[in-house]
Amino acid sequence: MSWNTFGRVLRFTTWGESHGPALGAVLDGCPPGLALTTRDIQPYLDARRPGQSKYTTQRQEPDQVKILSGVFDGQDGKQRTTGTPISLLIENTDQRSKDYSEVAKAYRPGHADYAYDRKYGFRDYRGGGRSSARETAARVAAGAVARLIIPEVTITAYVCEIGGDAIDREAMNLDEIGNNPFFCPDAWAAKRWEGLVDEARKSGSSLGAVVECVATGVPAGWGAPVYAKLDADIAAGMMSINAVKGVEIGDGFGAARLSGEQNADPMRPAAEGANTGDPQFLANHAGGTAGGISTGQPVVCRVAFKPTSSILTPVETIDAQGNATEIRTKGRHDPCVGIRGAPVVEAMMALVLADHKLLDRAQVGER
Amino acid sequence: MSWNTFGRVLRFTTWGESHGPALGAVLDGCPPGLALTTRDIQPYLDARRPGQSKYTTQRQEPDQVKILSGVFDGQDGKQRTTGTPISLLIENTDQRSKDYSEVAKAYRPGHADYAYDRKYGFRDYRGGGRSSARETAARVAAGAVARLIIPEVTITAYVCEIGGDAIDREAMNLDEIGNNPFFCPDAWAAKRWEGLVDEARKSGSSLGAVVECVATGVPAGWGAPVYAKLDADIAAGMMSINAVKGVEIGDGFGAARLSGEQNADPMRPAAEGANTGDPQFLANHAGGTAGGISTGQPVVCRVAFKPTSSILTPVETIDAQGNATEIRTKGRHDPCVGIRGAPVVEAMMALVLADHKLLDRAQVGER
Amino acid sequence: MSWNTFGRVLRFTTWGESHGPALGAVLDGCPPGLALTTRDIQPYLDARRPGQSKYTTQRQEPDQVKILSGVFDGQDGKQRTTGTPISLLIENTDQRSKDYSEVAKAYRPGHADYAYDRKYGFRDYRGGGRSSARETAARVAAGAVARLIIPEVTITAYVCEIGGDAIDREAMNLDEIGNNPFFCPDAWAAKRWEGLVDEARKSGSSLGAVVECVATGVPAGWGAPVYAKLDADIAAGMMSINAVKGVEIGDGFGAARLSGEQNADPMRPAAEGANTGDPQFLANHAGGTAGGISTGQPVVCRVAFKPTSSILTPVETIDAQGNATEIRTKGRHDPCVGIRGAPVVEAMMALVLADHKLLDRAQVGER
Amino acid sequence: MSWNTFGRVLRFTTWGESHGPALGAVLDGCPPGLALTTRDIQPYLDARRPGQSKYTTQRQEPDQVKILSGVFDGQDGKQRTTGTPISLLIENTDQRSKDYSEVAKAYRPGHADYAYDRKYGFRDYRGGGRSSARETAARVAAGAVARLIIPEVTITAYVCEIGGDAIDREAMNLDEIGNNPFFCPDAWAAKRWEGLVDEARKSGSSLGAVVECVATGVPAGWGAPVYAKLDADIAAGMMSINAVKGVEIGDGFGAARLSGEQNADPMRPAAEGANTGDPQFLANHAGGTAGGISTGQPVVCRVAFKPTSSILTPVETIDAQGNATEIRTKGRHDPCVGIRGAPVVEAMMALVLADHKLLDRAQVGER
Questions:
Q1: Total domain count for chain B?
Q2: Which family does the similarity line name (chains A, B, C, D) (predicted)?
């Protein structure tokens, strides 16, 4: 599989740097006949878009997506996918490359600066180039198209923890997610986070976060053991997101502390008058997969975002010549990258699930 | 990409079921000229082999590996890899299929039974067939060959937690790993675990565990952003191991609770008289990768194993006809699958690193 | 994609050398539930098997296939594919490695000897190792399974030309193919070839041949533009067969000599009372594909086999030290490798078509 | 491998339709540090560009390429590849969609119209959409970058036959290729072709052609048996080009008519005072590959282009409703698509060779 391509039969390739003229994605393998216009994509890009609150970077990017290929007017006049590659383009407009003069000279610890220089011999230091979180805009655009392939599935990601301050599971209400700038399902936690994140922002510090993602409506049978397990692909997709350092399915690391009895997900026959013959599960410690295949329960994963390394506190480092120096990262940065990670996690989940729907159809046929 | 193949240029395919005649791996893309005999592979299979202590399943499998292709006598008379596919075969000898009569009738909650039936329409219920942990023997064999490709790297995996009882980092000593049946680097923890695991075994219960893996000697520059990030491939490889529910790189979920200052890995110029020009890092919260590329620091990951669902306590479930029933899983099972997970985690790490060494050589050339 | 794997969703990997203990194939992505025993595979291996007439190599190989994984007894007691990798093994029994002492010393012009040494630094010179036509036995075995995936398709390959002596299209009768040792559909040509090939055999010379393959019953819609075109995959598969130097679809090179009018394949509405709504084509210059997608007409390709380089006439060459020498290739060889190429071409066609049936189902759904 | 992506480690993805806003390619896996500007690409696009003589379509397309990503200023101020994906964009400017009103109604025999409709349910009928030869502009752009990866190789493609009228091998002179509108190395043939092609153009007919491609400077050792054979990848790449119906390596189908003695490529020690230790080959029937690996001789292939199906003579066909009708293809078309095929064949050869240089480096290391 190539470096910048993800997926097995529904494959997307992203390209572009933070401060280049544009970035984009090419989505290949999309079924034909799906109604698709930029209106199906833009809302997801808007959700991820920076500069919408004081809690994210102030870089102003309209992130308007263009569809350059793969669609045509169907007989009903609606613009539909043709089954050919869908090329999505997003222009960069608000680059401030001068902000990066210092970054060009020395390595920001925790950033990809040093690693890119060591690998490639030099680097596009403007905003981290390819290692910038701006790359995730292309995933969000591709993910919006992927959602059209799996209308039976509902995907919701939200921030469940910032800087160690977690939401209250009792107080959780998915309707709250849109009511605060943190994609937070707990109104009280959202209130607390305002102070927490604002303080980090003012002090030029940064905070880590945990994003949880739940996909409901996934039928039993998606996932292909043993190296294309549904959860293995989710893990790869999530770990490829900037600043992500951990991925859990279901109880994840918590399950390692349970006994077999505690971790069991007992099953019962379908409920009386249920509209499906699917059995009932009395628990979902597994997070919706068994043996790498979906069970019909909600697919649940949690993703850990580290605090961004872009902080104002001077940190010991070296310059390109290997001499000792210090660096304070100015420029515009997210005090908590995990917040805007929520729409990205949703997009990756959509891309993995849509890919596996098609993979399953290839091997087993229509469900 | 295919279902049962892992890797990008160094690719291996595993095949075989728990109770079939044999299982194996085909490793493709291995460089030519490496001295290879079964003696390079067998010790790793022996480490993973069941039935060696009362803390693992009593199934007796010699797990003798055969090399069926890809090697030939070099001019020095040594058997060497030829650059063609290396076919590794391991025969199954101690199947007791009768143990599975009950499993054939009803689904074991937490096992792949139900998911496989829903996906494929029927399943090989003997020992879980393809979903059995026996598949990991093939990975361990392939991993042993992968190690020969990266002699500069030392990989060590150990169990750092069982049933919530963690090792003492102060008391940690890698030399201890071989002195106890738990791959435990803390002699005192190993003692405690004897009672813990034995109790679970006697009561027919099971325990989860956490395996940590450290790879030293990885040069800066391995890993290919953005979807072939070194850590993304590690996450995929680890999550594809049976019973794994979580993967962390470096501080992982812990990093989500740190501030940018706390999480920083400051750099200093190479130490006086160091034999490399590599800078010193004052910390390794990142776990050896930045932007998906190795930094030259040790690559560190942690893997969460759930408790096996094979327990003697009756659990509510349904039979193939969807009727309510109960199941107690008899047969021979590991009270803590995470223990034997350590050699498997080591093998997956070796396979991912060897693949990325070759990938990096393809794009950037010799280091 | 890896070196020794072919296919996109139905993928097979072959391994093994001519004089190793065995060779085999692992077929991944096969749909579950197909009735499969060795009896479905053996007849195709027997057709390809050497030593059956004086017109092929006298090496005696039973080529008995073993199925090591991927099958299990269904509820009807029939052994069926489970959807997991199918591992096929064929043991080598009649190696005569001593025959190759001379080959070890010098390069046979036209063989892979020199190229393998230059690439890998050394080679398994016994029977050409991995470059031996024995590798094709594994393809034939995998191809037999692929046929089960496309029961709607009938594939027939035959030799249409040996040493420049072509069949008479008027006299062509597919029922004749099994009545002669040349897979020849023209009884008179078969008679002529007896003398032609026998003479080459006696004089230690060799002859080239052309194999034609026709697949009927392929529905319109298989093939995925633009780099997974059905004809592009056929070309890759055929050109990967030993000794193949050319591939044509439909009129192929002949089409380059036609005008647009001559090359047209006019269409007409479905015939009265036809059992399908498919249109009638008044010609098939295109060989059943347009834009890389099947049209519903027979898929037709022709494959050119060079004469084997293993001849008794001394040829100028160099030894491993680069010194001038001469070589006469003794040992047992096919005077015309193209003859046994027919079953291999059939197998590759089956593998490509089955792969594209599943690929099409992934993107477009059931037809 | 996905539908619209080609290559193994150097992978490119093309997107775009003939009458969409633009088309492009994303090239992934390119080594870092190569000096690259649009000036390295434009000349190859210009060579392929339509409307330059009366012998090609009159569609006027500047085919100006833009580099949207993957390059940055190196320390020497030169724009260099960074090792990240290179996104190349070419805008469509001279669409005349109204020309296609008739095509929308009925299927052009020999075109992809019918096949696309049957596969995808509907199609972008404007200029054939994705099945248009305009897609090859993206390959030519990607191929220009690939050439920078293999500076040691010289690739030359030329038309050696049009409408059955072949060049005279004796009169062949590569310097002539640029002196005529046919990429013809034989000045006399070029003269003859003027009349031939002009007549076809005037009468609204079309002609087939054969393009030959020679790559010199390819070192021994490129190509990865058995399914990534250098010649197998060349065959796939060439057959994926619009209108191509056949591919030959070396003597190709001619070799099928030779005896082993005639087809031999005898070897001799390196010539006195040769600057390489490479042996001399006394012939090159094999076309530079043995066992799928380059031998160090020139790599030679021939590609057959059918006459375009776009002719003014009415042809029997059916409309979308399946009713009988006739079609005359108006609009602007190449009387001989094979002519402009030459730069495309060169580009595909460059892409395959560059990919295999990197693949070989991955497995075997620097040569």
A1: 1
A2: Belongs to the chorismate synthase family.
